[in-house]
Amino acid sequence: MPETRSDRKKPTPFRGPLIAARWTTRTVGCLVAMVFAASCVSHADNNLSGEPAEQAPESSLERTVRGEGVFDGETITYTAALETFDIAGTDDRPAARLSAFSYIADKVDENTQRPVLFVFNGGPISASLWLHIGAVGPKRVSAPDDLSAPVDAFELVDNPHSPLDVADLVFFDPASTGFSHVVDGGDPSAFFSIEADAAQFVDFIEAWLARHGRDGTPVYILGESYGTMRAAEAAGQLAEEGGPPPAAGVFLMGQAVNIIEYAQRRQNIISYVVSLPTLAAMGWEQDRVDRKGRNFETFIAEATKFGETDYLTALFQGNRLEDDELRRIADKLEEYTGIPADYYVENRLRISKEQYRTELLKSDGKVLGRSDGRYVGDDPRGDASGILTEAYLKGFKAYLSSVFDLEIGEEYKTLANVGGLAGWE
User: Fold this and answer.
1) pLDDT at 260
2) What is the pTM of this model?
3) Cα–Cα distance between 103 and 82 in angstroms, integer?
4) Cβ neighbourhood burial of 320 (10 Å; 0-12, 13-18, 19+)
5) CA distances from 227 to 44, 128, 264, 370 (A)
């Protein structure tokens, strides 16, 4: 029978900072590395044996295996499962069959209520494979240092930075992504809004907790990109009476909740300030900036401070900015980004990330990768870093095949046909 919301008892008190402190401090580097596909290689011995667990799968899709790995120096044995959940429809939303990958550690301390971290990507709307195989799961894809290396050079490695030592993990795929889909002839677009999308996720949390007998379990949420909007909305819905327990904490990765601050609307001056450290990092990587003997950390810190002070003030002054000050700011921007000062003067100190991608190496007839500015290509309409998508998909398929004995094809949807935020309410 489809699982629905019901009244649940309040979560057992839990020291929230524990999971945040023990995981965030050691994982933030690998989260950033996942976004830029930097190599964060681990030599820990994570063994997903693929041996069947005691309970048999409930359907041809579902899988359950035993695994073991070393996370933050601690050996953890766990159960890995691909599960499906039938979620009842409402007047506004169709019924759905949702899939998820769960990693549940064997209980060590009977007196401790182990938290659950629900993880998902953005889009809208995407499957969660990118965070699953890129940063948070027990295995991750490692990109070679050689940016010219073929896709076969990317490796599936152990991930000691996975937070499995402090929390169980659940990777959520919304309907129309992964193996998840609406049922009974329902309209998938009924979920194509922030409120309905989050409500679907809240229903899933309810169903997952009920199936696993985890009443009172502290619930944490990690959303990436658009997923940060889902996380914020879901946290609000969870706080309402009559649903699952309120979230004990929320992680926002590549956060987009206040997207207006960096969406690169021309008159939104904040977007240029918050983008400056990213442009400075890409300019450094391509050796087009004036380093002046500084190391990378100092260079980025100075660029960030300049952006938050002189640059922001100059942008705010707009046409009231004196010509001498305009030239001074433009010269500093050239120092930090590698784009000629004359460009900044002509464009009133503004450059978007997309413009930067095509301008930095324009004299060489080259453009930077859209997803990863370390990669360089010839076609401004393409993405020189597109190999990363191919590598992650290849790694995820290999992972499912070797661990879950599951071969996936067209039935697995990495991205729903939504059209981005333009098709979202």
Assistant:
1) 66
2) 0.84
3) 9
4) exposed
5) 30, 10, 20, 20
